[in-house]
Amino acid sequence: MTQPTLTRRERSGMNAPPGPLRTALTLAAAGVPVLPLRAGKTPFGNCRTCAGNGCGGRPNMKSAGPCRCPGVCHAWAAATTDPAVLTSSAWTAAWRRAVCVAYHPGAAGLTVVDLDDTAAVDWAHATLPATRTVPTTRGEHWIYRGAMSSHNAVRPGVDIKSTMAYVRYLGPGVGTMAALPDAVRALAAKEPSTVRSAPRSVSLPAGSGGGECPHRTPVFLERGIAMAEQRITQARTAIHATVYGAFLAVLSTHGRCGCLTDAHIKRLFAAAQAKGETLRHCTDAWTNARTTLGL
After folding, report:
1. For 150-164, 186-200, 245-259, which range has the lowest pLDDT when averaged over its residues?
2. pTM, 2 dp
3. How does the average pLDDT of the chain come out, rounded?
4. How many CB atoms lie within 10 A of CB 54?
5. What gap in Å lies between CA 9 and CA 85, rounded to an integer?
6. Strands 140-145 and 178-179, sheet pairing
7. Is residue 105 within 8 Å of residue 165, measured between CB atoms?
8. Which pLDDT band holds residue 60 (cuts at 50, 70, 90)?
9. Vertex 57, ends 195 and 223: CA angle to 5°?
10. Which sign does the torsion angle of CA 153, 155, 161, 164 carry?
């Protein structure tokens, strides 16, 4: 992830536009999906049409599906690398009110270990491999290459932010970014799980098998696949990163529950190939996403 160097004023998150937008465009050009944050460092609320996910929603914690709203809706799911969207009239109004920029780490193939206090930082130094670090108000962000599902409070003062989450951009940080270690995955694995392992009998390199999804409804799966297709189809830059991020998001939610079928995977591959990706690129991206998630 190539990141710009910000001034002290920009790092504070309180500079007026075009500072946040300029930072966002630089990050987006590097394949990092971004969104503006308003006062309080929170995403902008949904528009009237999208309120309560009346539109069907982009993926969020409760529902998923295609949404063509041009506004900055659906929190982390609004994050984009498309400069045309970032500079559209609907988004420009949000940038005028934005206090800082956030990004969706999972879609960029990243995981952020959010250390909320000094004790958590000390634990990380003693436990986790060194990687790029970014200072925060009370602690640090440790950024690793590789994505996984997001989990809060995996231990005192420690959150994991990757897929289906946003992280405030606080600057480029220092140090060399390391691969996501098993030690971080193990923090999430400690949580009790009721999902069953996915059978490995499909013809494509999916590692999933078409069983009934035990933790989501079929409608949730269909909307998730449709949103992944839409994300790929609407990408104008960073196609490789977008395809990988879409595959990763689908697998992180459904890769272990057995509800994915060949038909679902073929739809994702077809969307990627329509954007110029080869079958080999699709296969590699899918395999890499599975490897990242430990599937």
Report:
1. 186-200
2. 0.60
3. 79
4. 11
5. 25
6. parallel
7. yes
8. very low
9. 50
10. negative
